[in-house]
Write a structure and sequence with these properties.
52% helix, 14% strand, 332 residues, 13 strands, 17 helices
Length: 332
């Protein structure tokens, strides 16, 4: 009898802890060039989680082009959270019922814990004299960036170039389309995501200028220090939010809602903001931002709302099938 009682007690103890262990695993599905950032963030959150709850957590990562990642989740990739570089890709998941419709209101700053902007990385000595968006449209200059149809990173590049053209030509839409078409025509190869574009530029030696997020230009310059790449901040660019969201349907099914929400909220902590700033993202924590201000050049930063009237207009006028992006691709 005593043996049976001890076994029953032990079994009850195991079963009572099983839900906690089941909850403490996350799949963060993220954009293509975020690998190093989350490799730095995840173990620090895991230590924080263990200290505050006494439990361990395993955080798995999946990286790829932001739009491709969204499609993969719709097709069954069991993400608990998404940390994307494009709001529209989270909207796709919200429209599919996987993310709450009001996801932007769930966390501060429109659910974007940090932000960046499209910027340039040129070869040692900047032999082509590339300083601004105009230079990307010049004959003989080869810009490298991914396909805007598959990459949120490249979509921001397309929109930033378009915004620059509108600002330079007094709002002439036809001229802006011609300008962006010239830039697209100069691109020798379109990769599907930002990391592949980096490899094309840095490892295959193709192109004169890599256009990617400012944070990524700094990381690439450090990783390929022997090549002497030079970071160039254009005169104007586009505010690029890096939105995050709970994939509520999957998290509920996986039993991970508690730790998933804690993970996303922790990204706003001074500790996480410090790490993001070390990886050259512009952060919202005022104290951390001030500490890193000297490393981030001033730039005329516009938003998609100011230039394009928001993402709904961008989707309809630029990104929909047969819309402006398709038209300038056809004419490239």
């Amino acid at each position: 009898m005593k043996t049976h009682l001890l076994l029953a007690t032990a079994l009850t103890a195991v079963l009572s802890t099983a839900p906690a262990f089941a909850q403490d695993r996350l799949l963060n599905v993220s954009y293509d060039v975020a690998r190093e950032l989350f490799e730095a963030l995840n173990p620090v959150f895991a230590a924080h989680w263990q200290e505050t709850t006494g439990r361990t957590v395993t955080i798995d990562q999946s990286h790829g082009g932001s739009s491709a990642q969204a499609r993969a989740i719709l097709e069954g990739l069991p993400a608990d959270v998404v940390t994307f570089n494009q709001e529209t890709d989270i909207d796709v998941l919200a429209n599919g019922g996987l993310v709450d419709a009001n996801w932007r209101d769930a966390l501060p700053n429109g659910a974007s814990p940090w932000y960046s902007l499209p910027a340039f990385l040129v070869r040692e000595g900047n032999p082509k004299g590339i300083e601004d968006w105009d230079d990307l449209a010049r004959e003989g200059v080869e810009p490298i960036f991914p396909n805007p149809k598959t990459s949120g990173n490249a979509r921001y590049t397309y929109l930033a170039a378009y915004a620059y053209a509108l600002g330079s030509n007094g709002g002439d839409q036809a001229a802006a389309q011609t300008f962006v078409g010239q830039i697209l025509a100069n691109v020798p190869v379109f990769d599907t995501g930002g990391r592949a574009a980096t490899q094309t530029f840095a490892e295959r030696g193709i192109g004169d200028v890599l256009v990617t997020f400012e944070a990524e230009t700094a990381g690439i310059a450090e990783s390929y220090a022997d090549q002497g790449f030079v970071r160039v901040t254009p005169s104007s660019s586009l505010f690029a939010a890096f939105p995050v969201a709970l994939v509520s349907e999957n998290a509920t099914r996986n039993g991970s809602t508690e730790v998933a929400n804690a993970y996303l909220e922790w990204l706003y902590s001074p500790e996480a903001q410090q790490i993001a700033a070390q990886y050259h993202y512009r952060v919202n924590d005022a104290d951390v931002a001030a500490a890193f201000a000297d490393s981030l050049p001033a730039v005329n930063l516009q938003t998609v709302d100011e230039v394009f009237g928001g993402w709904a207009n961008i989707n309809a006028e630029h990104l929909a099938e047969g819309a402006i992006l398709d038209q300038v691709f056809v004419n490239r």
